[in-house]
Amino acid sequence: MQTITHVIQDSLGIHARPAGLLVKTAAGFASDIRLTAKGKTVSLKSILGLMTLGLKQGDRMDITLDGPDEAEAAQALTAVLP
Amino acid sequence: MKDYKGEGIVDGIAIGHIVLYRRPALGEFEQPVQDTAAELARFRQAWQQADNEMALRYEKAQALFQKDRADIFAAQKLMLEDQEFIGRVEESILHDKRTAVYAVLQTSEFYADVFLGMEDELMRSKSADIRDVSSMLVRCLCQGENERRTETPGIVVADYLLPGDLMEMGQENLLGIIVRHGSASSHLAILATEMNLPMIVCPQLELNPDLESRSLAMDGGEGLIFIDPDSSTITLLKEKNQELIYRRQVLASTGEVLSYQSHRIELLANIGSIEDLRKAVANGCDGIGLFRTELSFLGCRRLPREEELTEYYRQCLDLMPDRQLVFRTLDIGSDKQIPGLSTEKESNPALGCRGIRFCLSHPELFKMQLRALLRAAVKGRAALMFPMITSLSEVIRAKALLQKAAAELKEAGLPYRDDLPLGVMIETPAAVMLADELAREVNFMSIGSNDLAQYTLAADRENEALAAEFGNRHPAVMKMIGLTVEAARRQGVGLSLCGELGHDLEALPELLQLGLTRFSVSPAHLPAVKAKIRQICKP
User: Fold this and answer.
1) Interface ipTM > 0.85
2) Nearest C-alpha of chain B: how many angstroms from A17?
3) Would the pTM of this model clear 0.80, i.e. be above it?
């Protein structure tokens, strides 16, 4: 299992465009990928789940990856973090 | 006859019978199901059908609308395919023994509520998208039970409508739209504009079942609704419709090149927001001659951030990638309040620290806007213009700040453009007198006729008592314009006119005679000005 901890830099928070990018990237991997923020955990493969968290600049998020391609997935996601 | 006054959203006249749009209510599908496995299979089959139809709808939208409109449906398809959404619906069927329709409506309302609770307007608008997705699913589940097909086209009256509802009913079956809830910035309004469907928002209108099939007339420009209209109302509206149709025909001739004494005449638009820009695109113009950028700074609780402005300008440039968009930098004075900035009270704001004077005395704020513009300008055809110029040194100092803004972006490693065409507003007698000197520093000039008239004639343009005598067409103002035209010609820079004079149909022959070739007017005036120029050019 891998984890990524990130504090959102984008001044607009996670709006539709970066959310779409994160989800599209996550969906490309077989591993189970979850995001925890504000005390809630959602699948990072769900655009609705991610958007309903309403994450803003300065919010902390923890991503956990579990599966055969978790290392590659972690690398790909790190590149598109907002 | 009974009439209502609502908010006119899309201009146009429609006369026809009412088609009440009934939406399935949660309560109708409340009874629990026995065979949950069969209900689940029913949902999965309907989902497959909805997914196919969503793909078709997207294709259809691509053919009907510009790309960014069609993207509404691409985003909806992603929501339909969302695993969390599907998971919630299936769980509701399996564990709570809900009907598939109930489970879909309940799930979409759950998400819609979350979105509606958010601060950000953009995120709130996602509630309409998820409801649209659930509508599509419910339609597939009910297989035509809720079909609202009509024999002849009618005016749809609904509590609210979603973009998908419009697509489903089809343009050929619709004459107009009346909803109790909606706004000018909704996806629905944008699509209705493109479909040329008059639209009114009227919360007072009660959706009684007895409205079905009654006759109705509407004036989308004025927001007027007449139920069971009398014959004189119908006659009046029909006449108005003739006029509108004539204007649309003039509009339809976009791409037509107008010329006067072998000079190409360009018709541009003055805008203040992205909504105006959409209207300008719809009304056909050769570009944007004046984008008043102050709106993003006024009437908000805090100053916009650089990222927000960049994104906003980018969206604007995306809408008009092939034609020039002239951004006029922040133009405010002490009569307008900007959040977080305390401006000194002035006894005469019109002659105070306004326009470029304000920007030069607030260099950090000014540079922030310039950085946003330079970043957004990587795509599209942006140009920058400085307002209220009265001296050469103002232009030189503004250009120095622009260079500084570019240097800051370079240091931050952000992509930007630094070769944008630069222009100045000619709206003071001083600028007219210095037009040659100013022109050598820039690529184009634009005459702001409202202020130029006010400062030339020493007549407050808000003072109605003075308006008749000191109108725009005063000979002194015309002479000022003539001097500017000559200076622009001598220095070989572009010149346009933005201001009310540009849509003064009686002034147009004289302005053309003076040698003006570029007119920038508000989107609503484009058709009439175009018709007039055409008439002058082809006698």
Assistant:
1) no
2) 10
3) no
